[in-house]
Design a protein that fits this description.
- The chain is mainly alpha-helical.
- It has a domain at 2-71.
- 54% of the residues lie in helices and 0% in strands.
- It has three helices and no strands.
- Helix 1 packs antiparallel against helix 2 (41-71).
- It is flat and about 70 Å long.
- The termini are far apart.
- The model has no long low-confidence stretch (mean pLDDT 82).
- Residues 74-109 have a biased composition (Low complexity).
C-alpha cells in the first residue's frame, strides 16, 4: 500500500476525485437545464455521470495493476497447465516488419495497354520528381 502514497499517486487520487466531482456537478447542472425545458440537456445529463464512472473505472484498474506489480503477480491471466505439459510459446511483444520485394506484374495475356503504359510513365515521373505538380508533367 505504500506504493499508492507516493506523490505521483497522490496527484492521481486527487485528480480522480476532482474529475468525478466536476463530472457529477456538470451532470446535475444539465438536469436542472433539462428541467427548465432544454431537451438536449437530457442526453448530457446522462453523459456526464457516465464520464465520472469511466474515471473511477480507470483509476480502480490502475490501482489494482499497481498492487499486483507490488506483490510480483503477472499482470495478465496465467497460462493454464490443463492443456498438457508442453511449454506454451509466447508471442514476442515487438514484431519486426516483413520486407517484401516489389516487382512489377506482367500484363495479363501479354497484352500491352497503351493507356496503362502512359499512366505508369506518368506515375514514375511523379515518383522521380517529388516536388513537381501534376501539371508540370511534360508528356
Amino acid at each position: 500500500m505504500q506504493r499508492l502514497r507516493t506523490p505521483a499517486w497522490i496527484v492521481r487520487h486527487v485528480a480522480m476525485v476532482v474529475l468525478v466531482v466536476a463530472f457529477l456537478g456538470l451532470g446535475w447542472w444539465q438536469v436542472t437545464r433539462a428541467a427548465g425545458g432544454n431537451a438536449l440537456s437530457f442526453g448530457y445529463a446522462i453523459e456526464w455521470p457516465v464520464f465520472a464512472g469511466f474515471v473511477v473505472f480507470v483509476w480502480w484498474r490502475e490501482v489494482r495493476q499497481a498492487l499486483r506489480a507490488e506483490r510480483g503477480e503477472p499482470a495478465g491471466p496465467a497460462p493454464s497447465a490443463a492443456a498438457g505439459d508442453e511449454p506454451v510459446a509466447e508471442t514476442p511483444a515487438v514484431r519486426r516488419p516483413v520486407r517484401v520485394a516489389r516487382t512489377p506484374a506482367a500484363p495479363a495475356d501479354g497484352a500491352d495497354d497503351g493507356e496503362l503504359a502512359a499512366y505508369n510513365r506518368y506515375l514514375s515521373w511523379l515518383n522521380a520528381n517529388p516536388g513537381a505538380r501534376p501539371g508540370d508533367y511534360p508528356g
